[in-house]
Amino acid sequence: MTGYAWLVPLPVVVPLLGAALTLLLANRPGLQRAVSVVVLAVGVVVAVVLLVEAYRHGPVVVRIGGWPPPVGIVLVADQLAALMLVVSSAVTLCVLLYSIGQGRGDIGESAPVTIYHPTYLVLTAGVTNAFLAGDLFNLFVGFEILLAASFVLITLGGTESRIRTGSTYVVVSILSSMIFLVGVGLVYAATGTLNMAQLAGRLDALPDGVRLTLQLILLLAFGIKAAVFPLSAWLPDSYPTAPAPVTAVFAGLLTKVGVYAIIRTETLLFPGGDVNGLLMVVAGLTMVVGILGAVAQSDMKRLFSFTLVSHIGYMIFGVALSSVAGLSGAIFYVVHHITIQTTLFLVAGLVEARAGSTDLRRLGGLARVAPLLGVLFFVPAMNLAGVPPFSGFLGKLGLLQAGVGAGGVLPWALVAAGTATSLLTLYAASRVWSIAFWRAPRLVAAAPPSRLPTLMVGATTALVALGLVLTVTADPLFGVTTDAATDLRARTPYVRAVLPGGAP
User: Fold this and answer.
1) Crossing angle for the helix pair 474-490 and 391-406, nearest 10 degrees?
2) Rounded distance, CA 197 to CA 453, Å?
3) Which residues belong to any copy of the NADH:quinone oxidoreductase/Mrp antiporter transmembrane domain (predicted)?
4) pTM: predicted TM-score of the whole model, two decimal places
């Protein structure tokens, strides 16, 4: 334990305290907004400190209440978890500022004003708890916290479409949680512990059939949450109907928590590549099916939802390679995709606010009437498509090089699928640009405002800038992700930090 261990619980505790305070300030919306912004800003600072500490000295561990594992709850901020904290904290802060800029704290015409900020902070606490969890049950608790908050956020406003799609989201989420809970119970029955550092040793001693069964059950649960094919059909119908800030934070973060859980369990609990072939097939199908769905869409939000599914495939590809290069590329791509996908959904919200619709058949001429909006779309769209020299290109290049280095039929097939997906993503992004921004103006669904709210534009601009920062700092960032991948493959730094006296 280092002198910074006391910081580890703060990304979970501070948002929960902030949620309680904002609920008490229900009749003071100005103070609600101020508290929320301060809480998330504190989260960014704490996350950066933890990343620096984890990079310099190894995982930062805190045992809640001083109880040793497996009795007590352990929170662990290694390089992977701390890096996820940094990007998620920055994204949630920008999205909150965007939602404040809309001028509707509830983001819905009929939702109570009091619930948005507390629920948003609870969602943040759930995400950070999932990243820091040192045992499977606490990881389950983190998922349930964020899912409970997401059930409220996705139905804000109470419109028919939001209730309908929200119901689908709820059913799918409960199903994945039930599968996860069954997996947790079976793991405990087989090993007598849920602490992941202990499981790293005890699972290796199980019979191969039992170990594989546990691995597949957890992968199924996390695959639903990460929206990998064929478990992704729920996402394109659920996300687009939610308010723009809610859709943005869901698209940027919630599926990546599932990807994070896959990375953590596949490296720490189930090393050895028993299911790498299956993961490669799933990754390839996720890429191809997702992007084919995207090119067929005529609505920006649905198009971005399908690209979200598609690009999850790149991350699973990196995990399936099970090499330092593959894992490093996967982690880099997670960081990139959280930022860029969130940005694009915020841009879609700006387009809707400016033109009254995100339906491409009703849009046109936006580059002429709102040139800044055109820039805010063009930069992250090209980044997502992997156009050089953006971070999307660098992340895909790292993954494809890792695939070539691995050799074999499946890795080469994934390299081909990844290249085709990137080209089709460029086609989809170019199609949106040429129709919505470049062609002659069309009638829109509602009279556009004279100008967009400054805070909405500023928050989106900040995320566009963050995407460019990822490009400029790609070399040191790849250094961090490579170190994180090396530690994940070794497992020893994590296990020794949590169990310095050895696994009982």
Assistant:
1) 40
2) 48
3) 133-424
4) 0.93
Is there a contact between 454 and 383 (Cβ–Cβ < 8 Å)?
no
Q: How many CA atoms lie within 13 A of 170 on its CB side?
A: 13
- 54 near 487, Cβ under 8 Å? no
DSSP state, residue 40? H
Q: Can you give the residue range of the structural domain that contains 418?
A: 273-494
Place of tokens 């990460």: 226
For residue 473, tell me if it sits in a domain. Answer: yes
- Could you tell me where the DSSP H helices lie in 155-195? 160-191
Residues 6+ apart with CB under 8 A from 156: 106, 107, 108, 111, 115, 116, 162, 242, 243, 246
In a domain, 68, yes or no: no
- Bridge partners (DSSP) listed for residue 63: 74
Q: How many domains is the chain partitioned into structurally?
A: 1
- Residue 152 has a pLDDT of 87
Spatial distance between the Cα atoms of 499 and 438, rounded to a whole number of angstroms = 59
Distance of CA 367 to the CA centre of its chain: 30
Which of 117, 170, 86 is closest to 338 using CA atoms?
86
H/E segment holding residue 482: helix 474-490
| CA atoms of 420 and 314, how far apart (whole Å) | 12
Token pair listed for 237 = 């119908």
| C-beta of residue 108 within 8 angstroms of C-beta of residue 158 | yes
Residue 167 · residue 102 · CB < 8 Å: no
Q: Residues 346, 244: contact at Cβ < 8 Å? A: yes
DSSP three-state, residue 207: coil
Question: Can you tell me the distance from the alpha carbon of 429 to that of 423, in angstroms, rounded to the nearest whole number?
Answer: 10
**236 within a domain of the structure (yes/no):** no
- The yes-or-no verdict on residue 335 having pLDDT over 50 is yes
Spatial separation of the C-alpha atoms in residues 395 and 473, rounded to whole Å: 12
* 502 has a pLDDT exceeding 60: no
The two tokens of residue 181 are 């809970």
Can you tell me the mean pLDDT for 395-417?
94
405 in a structural domain = yes
Report the candidate in 252, 227, 245 with the shortest Cα–Cα distance to residue 237. 227
Check residue 206 and report its DSSP letter. Answer: S
CA dihedral 487, 490, 495, 498 (to 10 degrees): -10
Structure tokens, 308: 């979200």
What is the rounded CA–CA span in Å between residue 283 and residue 229?
8
Q: Is the pLDDT of residue 375 over 50?
A: yes
Instruction: Look at residue 228 in the predicted model and tell me its pLDDT.
Output: 93
